[in-house]
Specification:
Distance between the termini of chain B: 53 Å
CATH topology of chain A: Glutaconate Coenzyme A-transferase
Order of helices and strands of chain A: HEHEEEHEEEEEHEEEEEHE
Order of helices and strands of chain B: HEHEHEHEHEEEEEHEE
Radius of gyration of chain A: 17 Å
Distance between the termini of chain A: 12 Å
Helix content of chain A: 10-25%
Number of helices of chain B: 6
Number of domains of chain A: 1
Oligomer: heterotetramer
Largest sheet of chain A: 10 strands, mixed
CATH architecture of chain A: 3-Layer(aba) Sandwich
Number of strands of chain A: 15
Radius of gyration of chain B: 18 Å
Strand content of chain B: 25-35%
CATH class of chain A: Alpha Beta
Largest interface: A-B, 55 and 60 residues
Helix content of chain B: 10-25%
Strand content of chain A: 25-35%
């Protein structure tokens, strides 16, 4: 079973040389730590950065330089700053190659819910609806089971949707799943120490076990 | 050169009335018009419909105008980090319209560029689409559904820039840019507060982010607190 | 009867303090020469300038700094440069207070034709269609009679249109006309030495003679 | 940083084929990609549909590609100042689609910002409106008619900037900016030639006009002629 860093580490393997990548709040943010140093990748932050760098050294924080999670960050060489219209313009124009974000629920047809729990929590969708509606390649990083022990990989989302038919891949503490065009979570890798049986119990939606399921190498 | 300078926030916000729609620049607490927000509290303007990506925190930014209950309605994309907001929303005191961040930005751009509507795929198939025109278009070789979204209409847009000149030209610093340029271009009356106000001619014309034609009133603000919402750092090793 | 400079001089009186003004090619360009020095006016050039200045001194021309007529120009203090999307954005958003342009024909209901003579001349509309479709206040500067002696103030334009119901005022070598909301050229001023009879002969469209017609003071 | 540098115009235009749609930045002869135009002549690419505000003059700019009859169709707003153009158009050798300048700019912006269509009032009631959807909208308190115009699709966009860095970020100089930034953002493959190519890190991130994400290939051009179309001057007194 993976911890948060493990999930991030596994997702980092999906990042390829030359990609522009948008990382959501939470586990996705950690992915940046596992991108191999030699690889040319630029991070986009939808509040208006391309070429986002790591957190600043203590004492070098700049209130005017934050990421989409409102955290203080830095800029790398070759970075650029732009306004929100251009930021979402380049997202809609599919210039960002890979989007990684968290979710509360994902359905077997690639729907995602991650912005609202009616009557309980309404923080808003931020840029998530824009990202999932336009991105070419979207990976969800999430816990597969919620605190009440219920699966978050569902036949159909119960919570209000963020986007439909958009998620391509899900990485959880238990495994890696491709979402099939015809519907279904296709298990392609299990986390170390996790059995296919564990995964069956933790998956409420349609599960397809690949013939070539293997244990994750991270 | 057409001079756009006013003395201070008080003069800049003359004519703001109860029950108007007002845009506020900024993302989180970054690049918010601190002086004008304080002035709005002094003025006690009521019934504000605020278009702003966020709602500040409990004791800073637009959160201050929530505390004083001057805001009737918020049009935002993300409103976490604010308990008073949540309380007012759940109790029904505060009207809230949540829209995708890119939709918010682009509805400002539409107003700025004289486009009555724009189409975006954000929100298709979700509750954001309820009551909106859905239409199929081909773009980039792909046919998909888009929502029609209208340009905002705002009586005032209140923005914060880093530098400005007496002609109203604005330059923003780093991610304090965010929504400020589009909102500056989208207000019927646009008010800009700047950290440094310089004489016309000092800014490079090639480096202006918002041309003065869009900015009706400009003044140099003071006492910027520039609070950091999430101070994240790494250690030197 | 006015020469080109006279027409420009008369139109300059319509320019008020604090206005952003777009001047078309030809006579409109000359208007800039007659704006009183103390007046705060900024010229917009639709290729991307606000705060356009006069022609450069000899030897100071910059190939990268031209106006919408492709002439070398200068920038005044407080000017700004922007791309064509923003330029026409501010035009559509009606931030430009006054537009002055030339015409081949104007009709009594405010239509204008100025970009094409079928089979003869097709230079294109440039930014004229955008300007006339959006500007709040449009004044046409033109010769009232063409080289063949025919009036260019018509009941209806013969040439392909540039815009409809958009012209508010026309200034010619003979007079100044308001275009009435209900249709018709309302003569409000005559040029020095021009009689109302001269004007009647030179106007093919509906002419309304104001009770208060006076001779132009320029 | 993702490196976008190529050696020269030859490498930058690899993959350009006959019968493609290509955007060319520039307004008149100002800010045109001189090196790439010369390279296109060398390559002899035929059947080009060129999206460009103007068509150059007889012996410079896109006029050169008209002389060699490499252009099949021009999509432009203004094409005066060019006798060869007029000859080819009137004889029917050259297809021409004239559209308003703002429509041209905004159709580029639509492509750049992922908006499949935009609405503009330009051309309502004229022959430009023929065959297009006309729709009434309210904007700025006024109801009027708008035309629906589609985002451009261009196989290549070829632009000229003043400075660029190895990450593909672009800065334009003065009115040589014109259509270049929008076209740079609108091409499926964007090629930028610059007067000065500098290492990533030398340009101020706040002052980038076109972020490198939009620019696929960048190189430093040479021998810029920068011809002036209308040399107008005043005398010192």
């Amino acid at each position: 079973m993976l911890d948060k860093n493990g999930i991030a580490k596994r997702i980092a393997k999906e990042v390829k040389d030359g990609m522009f990548v948008n990382l959501g709040i939470g586990i996705p943010t950690l992915v940046a730590n596992f991108i191999p140093p030699g690889m040319s990748v630029e991070l986009q932050s939808e509040n208006g950065i391309l070429g986002m760098g790591p957190f600043p050294f203590e004492g070098e924080e700049d209130a005017d330089l934050i990421n989409a999670g409102k955290q203080t960050v830095t800029l790398l060489k070759g970075s650029s700053i732009f306004d929100s219209a251009m930021s979402f313009g380049m997202i809609r124009a599919q210039k960002v190659d890979l989007t990684i974000l968290g979710a509360m629920e994902v359905s077997e047809n690639g729907d995602i819910a991650n912005w609202k729990i009616p009557g309980k929590m309404v923080k808003g969708m931020g840029g998530a609806m824009d990202l999932v509606a336009s991105a070419k390649n979207i990976i969800v990083a999430m816990q597969q089971v919620n605190k009440a022990g219920q699966s978050k990989l569902l036949p159909k989302c119960d919570l209000p949707l963020t986007g439909i038919n958009c998620i391509k891949k899900v990485v959880t503490e238990l495994g890696v799943y491709d979402i099939l065009p015809e519907g279904g979570f296709k298990l392609i890798e299990t986390a170390p120490g996790v059995t296919v049986d564990d995964i069956k119990k933790a998956t409420a939606g349609k599960l397809v076990i690949s013939e070539h399921v293997k244990e994750m190498a991270i | 050169m057409i001079n756009r300078v006013v003395k201070n926030a008080e003069e800049a916000l003359k004519g703001v009335k109860d029950n108007q729609t007002i845009m506020f620049g900024g993302f989180g607490l970054c690049g918010i018009p601190e002086n004008c927000i304080n002035q709005m509290i002094k003025m006690g303007t009521k019934g504000i419909t605020a278009i702003s990506n966020n709602a500040g925190v409990d004791d800073f930014g637009l959160g201050l105008l929530l505390q004083t209950k001057q805001i009737k309605k918020m049009i935002s994309s993300y409103v976490g980090e604010n308990e008073e907001f949540e309380r007012q929303m759940l109790s029904g005191e505060l009207e809230v319209e949540l829209i995708p961040q890119g939709t918010l930005a682009t509805r400002c751009l539409a107003a700025a560029y004289g486009m009555p509507v724009i189409y975006t795929p954000a929100g298709v198939g979700t509750e954001v689409a309820i009551g909106k025109e859905v239409r199929k278009f081909k773009y980039n070789g792909q046919e998909k559904e888009y929502l029609m979204e209208a340009a905002f209409e705002a009586d005032f847009a209140i923005v914060k820039a880093w530098k400005g000149d007496t002609a109203g030209n604005l330059i923003f610093k780093s991610t304090a840019r965010n929504f400020n340029p589009m909102m500056a271009m989208a207000g019927k009356i646009t008010v800009a507060e700047v950290e440094q106000l310089v004489p016309a001619g000092e800014l490079d014309p090639d480096q202006i982010h918002t041309p003065g034609i869009y900015v009706h009133r400009i003044f140099q603000g003071s006492h910027y607190e520039k609070r950091i919402e999430q101070r994240t750092v790494r250690k030197k090793n």
